[in-house]
Each structure stands twice: as structure tokens, then as C-alpha cells.
Amino acid sequence: MKHIMQAPGNCSIEDALQMVCRAEELGWIQLRRNEKKLLNGINIDKDNRLRFHILGDKAKRKMRVQTREEKIFVLANDCLTGDPFIHDLSLSQDMNAVCANGYRIAKCMKEYFLYRKNYRGALSSALLTKSLYQKVWDDSPYLLKQLPGIGMVTAKVCSLY
């Protein structure tokens, strides 16, 4: 709640996602040594799949994931692409936990921003809430994946049309 209360007035979706990644509710997620190579590859993102990246000095993409918050940020971004790259069981469980807890945190952010009459922050957190609940960005070509019985293959085929 402290992070939410210190949010900037023009809170973007990326800022809201960063706040979710710093939440104490996700403090049990640890960055393991054997995960770093996979997470680094996802953050480098040669195929431009991710919406946001971990940035280092001079607004350049960081080459290495070094903290728990950065791991959570990469996992959330990968999940919300609609076609996650991660298929490792422990990382998939972490990703599902990030989406489930992140949904509740973003919903709390939305309510707080509405109370404070910060409508830009409320809109950003509402879009993030919706995306985390559906596990896909709101402008993803794989939106059909949300429907029961529609898998990734059908969603990919339908996104071509």
C-alpha cells in the first residue's frame, strides 16, 4: 500500500506493473540461479514480443535479470503476451501466482486512484487489472484465447485474419 500511495500522478500501465512487482505479497518468489539465462533471453526479446522491458542506464535494455522484482516483471510481461515463452514448471507456477496476486493488487490500486481522483492512474490500473485477470494484454492478437475451448493454435490462426 505504501508503494501505491507514493505513485506518481501520471501513473502509466508500466508504472502500475512495477508497483505490482515490488509488492510484499510476492516476496516469497525468489530469483534462482538456474532461471537467469532463460529470463535474460526473454528480456532481450529479439522478436519484440514484450510490451515492456527492464531498462538500465540511459534507457537501454538490461542484459541481465538481477533481482526478484526484475524476475517478476519479466514473468508478467511474458505471460501477458498471450503466448508465453516459459514452459518450465516452477516458472509457470510463479507466473500464475504473479497474475493472481497482481490482479488483486492492481484492483486495489484502481480503487485507491479513484478515491484520490487520479483518473489516469485509475485507468492504467484498471487496464492492468483486466490484463492480469485474463492473462493477456487488452490489445493482444490472441484475445480469443480467453474463451473456453479456444487454445493457442486456434487463437494464432484467427489472429492472422
Characteristics:
161 residues, Sec63 N-terminal domain-like fold
Write up this protein.
With 161 residues, the protein is an all-alpha fold. It has one domain (2-159): Sec63 N-terminal domain-like fold (Orthogonal Bundle), CATH 1.10.3380.10. The chain contains 7 helices and no strands. It has helices at 2-5, 13-21, 36-44, 68-80, 89-115, 119-134, 152-159. Helix 3 (36-44) packs across helix 4. The radius of gyration is 16 Å and the shape is globular. The model has no long low-confidence stretch (mean pLDDT 86). InterPro entries: Meiotic_Crossover_Helicase (IPR052247), Sec63-dom (IPR004179). One of its GO terms (molecular function) is hydrolase activity.
CATH class: Mainly Alpha
Distance between the termini: 43 Å
CATH topology: Sec63 N-terminal domain-like fold
CATH superfamily: Sec63 N-terminal domain-like domain
Rounded to an integer in angstroms, the radius of gyration calculated over CA atoms is 16 Å
Low-pLDDT runs of 5+ residues are: none
Mean pLDDT: 86
- What class, by secondary structure content? mainly alpha
Write the element-wise H/E pattern from the N-terminal end onward: HHHHHHH
Strand content: under 5%
Please state the second-level CATH architecture.
Orthogonal Bundle
The count of β-strands is 0
How many domains would you count in the coordinates? Answer: 1
Helix segment tally: 7
Largest sheet: none
| Cα shape | globular
Approximate helicity band = 40-55%
